[in-house]
Amino acid sequence: MRIIIAGAGEVGTHLAKLLVHENVETTLIDENQERLATLSDKYDLMLHQGSPTSVKDLKEVQADKADLFIAVTPYESVNMTSCMLANSLGAKSTLARIDNYEYLQEKNKTFFEQLGVNHFIYPEMLAGREIAESLKTSWLRQYLSFCNGVMVLAACEVPDHAVILNKPFKTGYFDHDKYRVVAIRRKADTIIPSGPDEIKANDLVYFITTPQNLDFVREQAGKESYQIKSVMFMGGSRIVREAIYCLPPGIDKTILERDREKCNYLADKFDHVLIINSDVRNVEILKEEGIHDTDAFVAATSNTEANILACLAAKHFGVKKAIAEVENIEYIKLAESLGIDTVINKKIIAASYIYQITLDADVLDVRNLVGLDAEVIEFKAKEKSKITSSKIKDLRLPHNVNIGGIVRDSTGYVVNGNTQIMPGDHVIVFCPASQIRKIETFFH
Amino acid sequence: MSTPFNYKFLFKILGVLLLVECVFMLLSMGVGLLYGEGCADFLPAIVTACVLGTAGVLAGQRASFHIGKREGSVVVTAAWLLFTLVGLLPFWTSGHIPSFTDAFFETMSGFTTTGSSILPDIESLPYGLLFWRALTHWIGGLGIIGISMALFPLFGISNMQLFSAEATGPTKDKIHPKISETAKRLFIIYVVLTVAETALLRLAGMGWFDAVCQSFSTIATGGFSTKQASIAYWDSPLIEYIIAFFMTVSGVNFSLYYFLFKLRGKRVWRDEELRCYLLILGVFVVVTTLANLDFSEPLTLASVEETLRHSLFMNSAVMTTTGFASCDFMAWPQFTWIMLLLLMLTGASAGSTAGGIKVSRVVLTGKFCYSEFKRMTHPNAVFPVRYNGHVVRDEVVKRTTAFVMLYGVITLLGVLALSCAGLGFMEAVSCMVNSIGNVGIAFGNFGAGGSFADLSDFCKWVMSFAMLIGRLEIFTVLIILTPAFWKR
After folding, report:
1. B177–A44 CB contact, under 8 Å
2. Are A26 and B177 an interchain contact pair (Cβ–Cβ within 8 Å)?
3. Which one of A343, B6, B283, B462 is least enclosed by Cβ atoms within 10 Å?
């Protein structure tokens, strides 16, 4: 498979790194030589300095033979133009990063396909959705739903009074069909649990379960549930606006925005949201607007450092849940260790989303787990595929791969070693990014 | 520099490479068996390589493939040394080269495609060893890592860091997004050239065995011949023309053949290095031809043809750092020796199998110097160095000039060391330039058909080391010797 990525920004680079370990011929094109130079020796890629909108450069990287052309520069118009050029040159499929909701509407799909752009990605919208999801489930660090919400992946930090602590997996305590522990993160280490492993206090535990059993998981993990009734947003960025669209009306929303013009614009858009023209660093106003009684605080400006600091300040004022958008991938683990409940990175979300397109059609969904370097994938088991040949425990799956659950006839089931997967099942698999292609062969 | 050195990776790669060498030695043994020789020459070496290789692979189990610049340089340098140490065993244990120093020199000369030999009587060697001697050239020509990547993709060695530590030239261009695929394509070009030359030499009257060995040596721009008198042994104009052609062809950047194959001929012809390479070669051939013609007698077509042929052959042999000889060039006018010495320093194109400084670096340095002159008259003007129509980044120019300077300094230090050991001026200079440029012939007693056997052991070690740093283009080897490299 030949893939050309235009734009060596963070989305492009992260995507290239995901693809590099696999049997994919990746070419990265960017105008900035410096950005390419940092990649040249480390990764097995073809790098080309040139403009993504120049026909000559596109011919040079053989865009005509590309199976997928991905334009992820920061500029929507550049992305659209280069996708159209690549398509006219002969690229089989194209994807553009955009920041306009209009392009995503179903009714425009054929129109854009005629223009030569097959897929779109709107990272801010994906990030906004994820923020809204995590606000709905307050006690969790991460909440990803699969198959229209019949299976979920949930992650939470377990306090020292949880019942699941210090129980080795080999004792069989976890062998039931209510939930399945797929991974444990202890400080910087990721553990894929096997026989002798046990959960310790303050571990971040990843469960796969069904929404009906989520309460049981919560009890087992020793967490209190609370409803989030009020949210404060720092800055009226695009991510925040997309998050607000996804939130139910019952929640009180406040936006603090420095720029007066932007405040007017926001007020025009959202009539049920309280918009305050103030800097978040102004503690007086924060107190006045009731930061003490706010349940959740979301910082999603373009400034990572400000987001982290503002969340720490909010935690200090007693906010139960703080969500920060962290742009620098290196800072994610740092932010989590500082006590910020949920960290969102739109670039990783976007890269996982695009990555899914590069996989075969029987892969329905791929989500990256921020800070864990692992992916959760939803596969569809085909007729006569290897995965349906025997019970899970006899399958000889690759190292570190964990099957979490299956969805059969729109009902979710948690699996154990004795489960037999049937053709047509949707299977939720947890695995490190490097194993995806290997596990993919099980489903053909 | 915060990560600890990845020793497991080192062991694993070295182990795998030794197993690769084992395969090549088995091949040579097979050739020996074909000619009715026993296995005794190769068995000790094969067993050693096999045992050490397996041990390395076992020690390197579950090695992480995360490596930095440090591992890259150490692995490549260690691989070349280890390949030589194991590769010398057939010569040494069979008793054909009784001295360890001599065996090391001969094998290093083989792998680095130098082609300087210490053998006083090459024809006395059995076929198996002669084949192995030519094969060392062929392996070293494309590079130990490169050939392993191309031939054995199963081992999973597909690492940019390693490849670029071994490849030649100021910039490393890929012709395919995947490094293993790039290696495979280069390898195919390499094989096609070798097969073509073998067939032509066979048609020109050489025996199969000699044709194959001579082709291995030519395409790798090595210089080991199966005959003591080198190519002059056959005394056939046709063979000389064929070899001269293939030497010249092997001095061209191999990626250009790929582009030619892909019908992107324009790009090939516009290549600045190719043009300069052919231009320099052409000018030197014409000058040496004129210098060697005897104008006191009336010129005949036959004498002009012979002079032109020898001057074409020798200039090409020296510039591509092959080091074959078709005539006794020590009988030429003295200034042509200096011209040959200049060609030894220059070498042929980057990305070819040739040694030397490389034409592209010479051109870049020349352009940079010229732009400095321009900058003196217009202090505020911007004069970027252009190459192949693109502006060259400052760091590339800097590294190139540093390389050329280091090359000069190391050569001079080597000359000093060799003359301390008692070599005459001309011998010391030519031996050192010959070793670091991987050429294969020197002047004086070491000219055409000469042997390096009479050198002292000290000289042989100095020259062996110079061959290695010349082949790995200085930085890869010398960086290991700097304290900053090991500092955390």
Report:
1. yes
2. yes
3. B283
Q: Does the pLDDT value for residue A24 go beyond 90?
A: no
Q: Which of A272, A298, A319 is the last residue of a domain?
A: A319
pLDDT, tens digit, for every residue of A383-396? 888 888 888 777 77
Whether A110 and A203 share a structural domain = no
Among B161, B177, B393, whose Cβ lies nearest the Cβ of A45? B177
- pLDDT (tens digit per residue) in A44-64: 788 888 899 999 889 888 888
**CA-based nearest distance B69→chain A, Å:** 9
pTM (predicted TM-score):
0.79
pLDDT higher than 50, residue A430: yes
The residue range of the domain holding A387 is: 358-443
Nearest CA in chain B to A2: B177
In a domain, A349, yes or no: no
User: Which of B62, B64, B174 has the highest number of chain A CBs within 10 A, making it the mutation to test binding with A?
Assistant: B174
Question: In this structure, is residue A237 part of a structural domain?
Answer: yes
Compare CB distances from A41 to B161, B176, B393 and report the shortest one's residue: B161
Residues A6 and A113 in one domain: yes
**Inter-chain residue contact B181 with A25, CB threshold 8 Å:** yes
In this structure, the answer to whether residues A382 and A293 fall within a common structural domain is: no
Q: Which of A183, A200, A220 is the last residue of a domain?
A: A220
Judged against a pLDDT cut of 80, whether residue B67 lies above it is answered with no
pLDDT at B415 over 90: yes
A404 within a domain of the structure (yes/no): yes
Q: Is some CB atom of chain A closer than 8 A to the CB atom of B393?
A: yes
Q: How many Å lie between the alpha carbon of A443 and the closest alpha carbon of chain B?
A: 24
User: How many domains, in total, are found in chain A?
Assistant: 4
Q: Which whole number is the average pLDDT over A275-295?
A: 84
Q: Please tell me whether residues A208 and A312 are part of one structural domain.
A: no
pLDDT at B138 over 90: yes
Confidence of residue A225 (pLDDT cuts 50, 70, 90): confident
Q: Which of A40, A42, A46 is nearest residue B177 as measured by Cβ atoms? A: A46
Q: Quick check: B207 pLDDT over 50?
A: yes
- Per the prediction, chain A carries an average pLDDT of 84
For residues A224-229, average pLDDT: 81
CA distance B134 to chain A (A): 32
The alpha carbon of residue B174 is apart from the nearest alpha carbon of chain A, in Å, by 7
| Chain A nearest C-alpha distance from B367 (Å) | 22
A352 within some domain: no
Of B164, B181, B393, the CB nearest to A41: B164
pLDDT for residue B157 = 59
User: Which one of B73, B76, B178 makes the best mutation probe of the A interface by having the most chain A beta carbons within 10 Å?
Assistant: B178
Question: Which residues from chain A sit within 8 angstroms of residue B393, using beta carbons?
Answer: 33, 37
Note whether B67 contacts A: Cβ–Cβ < 8 A: no
> Predicted ipTM?
0.70
Rounded CA gap, A55 and B227, in Å? 55
